[in-house]
Structure prediction request, 362 residues.
Amino acid sequence: MDPLKLRIKPNPNFERLEKVLRREGTPDRVPFYELFSNIESEVLRAIGKTHKLNRTNRANKEDHDWELSQHINYMFCLGYDYVKVGASNFHFPQKEHPSTSTSEGERSYLRAATCTISNRTDFDAYPWPNMSSIDYSPLEHVVKFLPQGMKVIASGPGGILENVMWLLGYEKTSYCLYDDKDLLQNMFEAVATRVIEYFDTLATFDVVGTLVLGEDMGFKTQTLLSPEVYREYLFPWHAKLVKVVHTHGKPIILHSCGNLREIMDDIIDCGWDAKHSFEDEIEPVWEAKQRYGDRIALLGGFDMNKLCLMSKGEVRQHTRFLIDKCSPGGGWALGTGNSVPNYVPINNFLAMLEEGNLTGKY
Prediction:
């Protein structure tokens, strides 16, 4: 099968995306942004850009270098101005349930009633990450592979609220709001202080252009917990995190799914430079741009349902619509409404990027 012809001429320049994040006018063209992609290997095979790994030496370092070069190659060929890299061993261990629904290995999920920590004894016995043992060498190593003009967007193992709720479970978190507020407060502190220290260190690396926190706070109709709970337990930590990153002179992105209309002013007040994740049924990105675009940059917004179900021609047309509605004045990057999971048709995803590259010039 002949490789797909991709009409994108790579010209990476991180300043293009940085100008959007800082809302400092318009770059040369609309940049691209994604939280992550689960179809990197499939896309590289489709466009004939897969690098072969020499299997005569299966040292871990060689495998890691191959995976890193594949990721960089994917981001470069598709017209991105950055790659995603973080520390290799920072996480909060939790009970997970495996799923085999992906084409590239396993994905896991969490049950609402599953508790890794359910009481004070569990909290005290939990193996909290030792921050002095975090391995940041991937951020030093990536410099050897990075094409000129590209930088790193660094991320962590989920957000502050996310890790608290993953460890306690959604049900236990809800009960703690009434039965054990001290435990809940201690959970937020234990997670947040480590996440902030981690991001503080990430931001010291010159290769890091910006940082992103994944922090899902809502679902289709409302926030997961009440806005008042977020204001008491979460947003003070968000504000501290943003302030720490800003002391290094770098912007920071918030990725958060769900209906956040009741807390958007709080999000903006925390100082986040950009907000990612939009769904048309909740709030189309072009409406969000009109409502909030003078106070925060907005990223992505090509609705996932549309990207999956439209024809290639319709994808191109909708991409032009998004560019027309969202690009004026800058402060917006083209991308999906959430991420690139394995069920997104490759041809549609590439059509969005091609059209963005062709028609997104200022």
